[in-house]
Write a structure and sequence with these properties.
Helix content: 25-40%
Shape: globular
Structural class: alpha/beta
Number of helices: 13
Radius of gyration: 24 Å
Bound molecules: nicotinamide-adenine-dinucleotide
Length: 479
């Protein structure tokens, strides 16, 4: 067995792992990064964020061309070359993962292709891609092994008709009738892609609405568009059984009254959440504590119950988002390099890249209500935005949650095109402790959607330029 000594071993080269490895190398540590893929990137680059956003861009082009009919411009229905589309998407992935490989080399990070498990608190055993085994002794380690799709009982069989998000990203064909199970991030994003490409999409969601946990006023705007895009939405419904037959997938759906219906689909995509990758890692040998749902327990410095071992990203809990993992990875690297830092973000933004996008950061109305936080909600409807009108997208909404005592901005929620870009200003406002007056007095470029943040702040004082609303200070948090 080969033997390697390193100061820091990072297991998993997704956003959490590569961000940690690069930061540690920048701080002068000797770093070894281990992953089974040819280059760093993880689920996000190879099978998640990046390929889905490439395909959502194409979906956006198709949907925008359809909407242009409202402004008097009509196009022929698109001719879709799935092979070429797939090659373009794969090129984007190759370009970015190759770039990360280069960045690892430039930083002299040793990249090892294989799967690692702890032998004890100071060493790992790595099954190398070629079949050999390697022993790695480390001073410190970071676990950044991410998560995998949660499987749904009754749908755990192999069939080309049954897709995970990874399969769905391959766009092998465009099913005439697609079932999407789960009305969360993935179900909505992938459902949007397939609907734009021409599939008739039925979405089933276990709870009473799309994106459970997200403020309802934001979701309402998305739902209206999804109603027009998908063939049907079935709430409080789940899959009881699913069988692949010659003429399609025979699916028995059951609602909350146990009423059953059988439907036939060409393909189904199951997206009902994600599970942390914490099994097969030898955590017990390193005596690392996990909670009852499999998440590794860490403190604010990302340190596990084993002093020499840290953990970041999806393996340590919600929200399972790449940018949270990157932040935690960088913090862990700094702690290991001896800096006195901790991961204590005031706001972790979340974005659902649908059409329209939904984005939020900091406190939500749902959380405010649950925690009994006294806050005022101030809204700017995009019906009053000049820029939204020029885009034909006046249905959006920007809102701020403001501390009743000092008008400090505690949370921001946006629904509309480019909400994912706009939320960054909200994150900065929350992190910098800005109040509504700060935001309302900051000159925003006109005409842009970013003005909706400024005007939402002005609306708190009843003096937003673009719409008239008498002063109202007791807007209650919604359920
Ligand atoms: P999710 O938690 O966002 O949504 C899963 C949905 O499935 C929920 O609405 C849930 O109520 C529903 N559900 C669960 N069991 C069901 C059942 N038996 N029948 C019908 N519905 C059921 O999970 P996801 O969409 O799989 O995404 C997983 C994670 O990946 C997300 O939580 C997110 O952290 C991450 N992600 C993020 C992005 C992004 O940042 N834009 C995109 C994709 C994924």
């Amino acid at each position: 067995m080969n033997q390697l000594d390193t100061q820091l071993a990072v297991i998993g080269a997704g956003p959490g792992g590569y961000a940690a490895a690069f930061m540690a190398a920048d701080l002068g540590l000797k770093v070894t990064l281990i992953d089974s893929q040819p280059n760093p990137g993880g689920v996000c680059l190879y099978r998640g964020c990046i390929p889905s956003k490439a395909l959502l861009h194409i979906a956006g082009v198709i949907l925008a061309s359809q909407q242009a009919g409202e402004q008097g411009i009509t196009f022929q229905p698109p001719h879709i070359d799935t092979a070429k589309l797939g090659r373009w998407k794969n090129d984007v992935v190759d370009q970015l993962t190759g770039g990360l490989g280069q960045l690892a080399k430039q930083r002299r990070v040793t990249y090892i292709r294989g799967t690692a498990a702890f032998s004890d608190r100071r060493s790992l055993r790595v099954n190398l891609k070629g079949g050999d085994t390697q022993k790695i002794s480390f001073e410190k380690a970071i676990i950044a092994t991410g998560s995998r799709a949660t499987s749904l009982p009754g749908t755990m069989f192999q069939s080309e008709r049954l897709m995970t998000a990874t399969d769905a990203l391959e766009i092998q064909s465009i099913p005439a009738k697609l079932l999407v199970v789960g009305g969360g991030y993935i179900g909505l994003e992938m459902g949007t892609i397939y609907a734009a490409l021409g599939s008739r999409v039925t979405l089933v969601e276990m709870t009473g609405g799309l994106l459970p946990g997200v403020d309802r006023d934001l979701v309402r705007v998305l739902k209206k568009r999804i109603d027009g895009l998908f063939e049907s939405l079935l709430f409080e419904t789940t899959v009881k059984t699913m069988k692949a037959q010659k003429n399609g997938l025979h699916v028995v759906l059951s609602d909350n009254q146990d009423k059953e219906q059988t439907r036939i689909f060409d393909q189904a995509l199951v997206a009902v959440g994600r599970t942390p990758n914490t099994t097969d890692l030898g955590l017990e040998k390193a005596r690392i504590d996990v909670d009852e749902t499999g998440f590794i327990q860490v403190d604010h410095r990302q340190q596990t119950s084993a002093q020499s071992i840290f953990a970041v990203g999806d393996v340590v809990g919600e929200p399972m988002l790449a940018h949270k993992a990157i932040h935690e990875g960088r913090v862990a690297a700094e702690v290991i390099a001896g800096r006195k830092v901790a991961s204590e973000p005031a706001a972790i933004p979340a974005v659902v890249f649908t059409d329209p996008e939904i984005a939020w950061a900091g406190l939500t109305e749902m959380e405010a209500k649950k925690r009994g936080v006294d806050c005022t909600v101030t809204r700017f409807p995009w019906g009053a935005s000049g820029r939204a009108a020029t885009l034909g997208r006046s249905d959006g909404l920007t809102k701020l949650l403001v501390d009743q005592r000092n008008e400090q901005i505690l949370g921001v929620g946006i629904v509309g095109p480019d909400a994912g870009e706009l939320i960054a200003a909200g994150v900065l406002a929350i992190e910098m402790g800005a109040n509504a007056t700060d935001l309302g007095l900051s000159i925003h470029p006109h005409p842009t959607l970013s003005e909706t943040l400024m005007e939402a702040a002005q609306a708190l004082h009843g003096n937003a330029t673009s719409f008239y609303r008498p002063l109202k200070r007791d807007s209650k948090a919604e359920t």
